[in-house]
Each structure stands twice: as structure tokens, then as C-alpha cells.
Amino acid sequence: MPVNYIPLNVGIDFGSDYLTNEVAYFLGGILAADESAIKNGIKYWIAPFRYNPTHITTTEMEKHFNHVCTIGQTLKCPVYMKDTVRQAGLDSGKFRHPGFGAFFTSRGCEDLTTILPDVRMALSRSSAEVRRCFIVGAFDGRCSVDVNSKTGKHRFIVLDCPNDTTGAFIKEIFEAENFHPKFNYSRDRPQGGNHRKAQLRIKGADFVKFSQNYGLVSERKFNVLYSAYRTEFGECNICEDNSILNGLRTVR
Question: Residue 102: helix, strand or coil by DSSP?
Fold first, then answer.
């Protein structure tokens, strides 16, 4: 294992004992979702990838799925489409929308909040490339690129977080990378009903920085990001960063 990768043991079987680009990508997705399933008494942590059913084509879904399968190949993690998830008995109850998930066996991790200090330390000691992969992973599965329907320009990139603790942790990692995200803690709705989830948003200069230096693997989400960027700043090029993560693309 290259010396620039930092050892990581947080009680989740990633198929590697080091915080590699690929492990960082899936770890970001796991922390952004805080989602798990239990099968035969064994807990599995999930990095989910989901879409609004009206906002994704079959081709876009297949491309994203194939990229994620390739990223996880060396880690030997199963990646299942929604219907296969159910057949495999690993449905967390949240696979209602189109999408898929990567599954990692728990080796003692029962609560993600307990691993945050170790993850924080490992990321702080890792390369900028590894930290980039963590941020990409946190956003690639469940974020949305919100675009003004009238102007075609971006409003923000938004991520709904499962709880305040892991959401605030992802915000902290973003701030360490010199982003200035807005983070709304979970709160009750004035009209009652289910409370609003914690939410992290980036926009403006952070949108530009994310588009140019971090990027996304998701075919659909990147295409929306690219269209908004081009509308605002004119013609630009797409840069493929497959040497960092399979399918990763940025705007130049």
C-alpha cells in the first residue's frame, strides 16, 4: 500500500485497511446517509445513490451504476440496484426511488457518531486527493443541483443530512477545505408533520470551486451542474479524472 494512504479501522469492512480514494468516496456516502440494514443478524452500512424518478434516464442510471461498481471493485463490496436490494434482503426501507446502493459489513460499528473522531484524524492526515474523494462521495449519492428554472443558473448544491451530528461533521470537513457552506440544523415545521432534515448547501464561489476542483461521478447530476456552469460562465471544457475515481468529472 502506498505510504501516502493512512491506516483506518472504524469497525466497517471496506476491504482495505487504509483510507484510499475509493474508501474515502464510500465513507463519505455512508456518513451522508447514516443508513443501514440487517440481514441474518449482520449489520450492513449503506452508501446509497438515489434519484427523483422524473429526473433520471435508464442510460444515466446505468452509467452511474457501472462507475460505482468499478470504484468498489478492489474493495469487493456488493453494489445492488433497487430491485436487487430487496431480493437480497438488504432493503433499509428507503429504496423507494430509482437508484442503487453499495453495502459494507459492520465489524463492530453500531453508531456512526462514534467513529467521527477517527475519521476526522485520518482525513486530516490524508492527501488532498483523498479528502476530495470523501467530499465527492458525500454529495454523489444523494445531493441535488438546484437550478433556477427561468435563468438556467445554479441556486445551490444541496444535501439533506440524516441528523445534525453527521451533517455538522460533513460541514466541518468542507470548511477545512476552505468552503463556506450553509448548514441548517433539523427543525420542526410550523405547520406540523415531519420535521425538516438538517441540510447543507453550497453556492456562489463554492459552486464554482466544487465544479472545477471536486466534481461528481453521477452522470445525471454532473450534467445538470455542467449545464448551469456553462449558462453562467460561457463555454467550458469537461475534465475526466478517472485516475482519481472512475467516472469523476469536473468543469474547466
Answer: strand
